[in-house]
Amino acid sequence: MDTELKNRVFRANKELVEHGLVVLTWGNASALSSDRARVVIKPSGVDYENMTADDMVVVDLDGTILDGQWKPSSDTPTHLYLYRHFPDIAGIVHTHSRQATTFAQARREIRCFGTTHADHFRGPVPLTRALTRQEVETEYEKNTGAVIVERFTDISVRFPIPNHHPKPISPVEFPGVLVAGHGPFTWGPDVETAVKNAMALENIAQIAFGTQMLFLERNCLSNDDLDFRETPQLEEYVLHKHYERKHGKDAYYGQKYGPSEKEQTPKTAQLNKNS
């Protein structure tokens, strides 16, 4: 069942390790079938080194196991909740990558300081609220998905930080989130894009942390009361330009493919898209 999707999810999970986003078994990737009826996800607690494509688990959107010899990832209810509520996504990645998790544990959104960030997120990387005791003790993983969705749809939980949009934010324009005290989740139209967004988020977090540290170092001698939140953010018009040129309706970043696209080798096409 879903052999091709199992292979893709297996490769995605292995890439998380190869790119340094996962150590031990701290992470998982999943993909939604084209009919949006089944999810393929990594098995719970299985060592990445010994894992094979046949170890991937297939579940329906209620979490019932349809195929596989192992229990699915313990984070499966979070993935399922996001698939049910974000209709434009078909791949999800969860990691505990070092710098993004640092921001999540510090309970700070990642503010946009430069164009690298703006190429991937249309503003600060959002942060959820902390789960309540009741939410943790009853259906913890499902409620993790719920606070993520809440962060994108409920204006009342938005944080009073400059340059935030005064309306619900789009999971297409913001392809990832930090769960307070936990770590990052990213997504995309397929699992391969979700992996790329996890890579982008970790690098954005590293750059943002370094930017804030340099700002403090440069200014701390002259201002004992300096707050790193005073680090200058990217101008809104530059943020908008960089996001729109890559993702907007009139985007011009990358190549436009026609009938000859099929004649390109996969490697050539990928190089063109990433240049």
Give a topology summary:
Elements: H1 3-18, E1 27-32, E2 38-41, E3 57-60, E4 65-67, H2 76-85, E5 91-95, H3 98-106, H4 115-118, H5 133-137, H6 140-153, E6 176-179, E7 183-188, H7 191-219, H8 236-247, H9 266-274
Antiparallel strand pairs: 1-2, 1-5, 2-3, 3-4, 5-7, 6-7
Helix pairs in contact: 1-7, 2-6, 3-7
Short description, anyone?
This protein has about 280 residues and is α+β, with helices and mostly antiparallel strands. The chain has a single domain (about 5-230), classed as Class II aldolase/adducin N-terminal domain (L-fuculose-1-phosphate Aldolase, 3-Layer(aba) Sandwich). The chain has helices at about 5-20, 75-85, 100-105, 115-120, 135, 140-155, 190-220, 235-245, 265-275; strands spanning about 25-30, 40, 55-60, 65, 90-95, 175-180, 185-190.
CATH topology: L-fuculose-1-phosphate Aldolase
Give the CA-based shape.
globular
What is the arithmetic mean of pLDDT?
84
Kindly report the name of the CATH homologous superfamily: Class II aldolase/adducin N-terminal domain
The CATH architecture name reads: 3-Layer(aba) Sandwich
Q: Which strand order does the major sheet show?
A: 4-3-2-1-5-7-6
Percent strand: 5-15%
Largest sheet: 7 strands, antiparallel
Terminal CA distance: 36 Å
Helix content: 25-40%
Order of helices and strands: HEEEEHEHHHHEEHHH
User: What's the number of extended β-strand segments?
Assistant: 7
Which value, in Å, is the CA radius of gyration?
A: 19 Å
Number of structural units classed as domains? 1
Q: What is the CATH class designation?
A: Alpha Beta
Report the uncertain regions.
258-275
Oligomer: single chain
